[in-house]
Amino acid sequence: MATDRSMRQMAQPLLEGNVIARLLRFPLFYKVLVANSLLVALGAFVGTKISLSAGMRFGASGSWLVLLFTVIGVGLTIILNTVLLRAALQPLRTLRETVDAMAQGNLNVRVPESPLADADLASVASMLNQMLDHVRRYEERVQDLSAGVMRAQEGERRRIARELHDQIGQSLTLLLIRLKLIEATPQAEPLHTDLADLRASVASTIDQVRRLALDLRPPALDQLGLVPALRELTREFADRTRIAVTFDGPTDQVEFPLDRATALYRIVQEALTNIAKHADAHNVHVSLHSRPTAFHVAIVDDGRGFDVAALEAATQERDGSGLGLFGMEERARLLDGSLKVATRPGSGTTIIAVIPKNPLETPHGTADTDYFVQQENHHLVGR
Fold this sequence. Notes:
Layout: H1 2-24, H2 28-58, H3 63-103, H4 119-184, H5 192-216, H6 219-223, H7 226-241, E1 244-248, H8 258-279, E2 283-290, E3 294-301, H9 308-316, H10 323-334, E4 338-343, E5 349-356, H11 370-377
Parallel strand pairs: 1-2
Antiparallel strand pairs: 2-3, 3-5, 4-5
Helix pairs in contact: 2-3, 4-5, 7-8, 8-10
């Protein structure tokens, strides 16, 4: 008997908790209806009791007291009703906040479980969480696929650049040497002018092949590091386009992991390519900084700018515009970084890329790039 009694005592809290949980799972309509009905009934009962008691005790003079208690009762009813409605509608507010966060691109948000949610709301929250889990898994698979494509692309770039330099470049150099030897023979005197033109054409082709190999995969990036590679890139860009370019990089020794160095280099390279094609700029400033938790690179120009919304719409229509900007954003995002573009027609363009050193410290591109947009704008000469 004692054992049965102790088991019933232990099960009683669980039963009570289960009953309360079932009551809290009632539909929202019945929660509000029951709460308001209880408040009205309680107010009517208490108000009637107070009115009768005051009428019998104070007679006619108790009317003011009855009015005072009526006002107090109405006020308490409104306050209690507000508290109950806020508690009952809290799951809806939480659901709305989750949807707003999801609309802003945060796929890590989830609807928390609420004991106040009824069965319908709990079902909607569960379905939304499942959908977010599915989208997140799909996004991770897409990111893995994109990362694999970019790694394969870099490997193919490296291979083609090596073949251009080692095979085609050496073959053209050998051809140039043989042309010089032929030009030096007495029998080639009548063809001296034609041989000189041909030798100049071969030398120009060698320069083009060398530039193409450098664009595909600069040796300095693998051999010397990111900062010398960016210095060479900006110098070559200035010589080729006649646009004034300044570069500001770390003066001390900074270690850049290869994947992050490659991404930062490609972002700057693509930005400079877009400036040469579309910006009509006269001055460009490129800066690279190593912060405690992230690498920051900024590309600022004084060109004609563009409408970001119009470019994004053109990209969605797949007309080929804006793919360079999308590629830069994708490179930053694959490393849990972020990319910010600040521009408008006629006011130049500022591009800031923030790539965390350790993705666990700055997850999913949460680094704030707006501050660095403001900080980098003043570096541009003549801005």
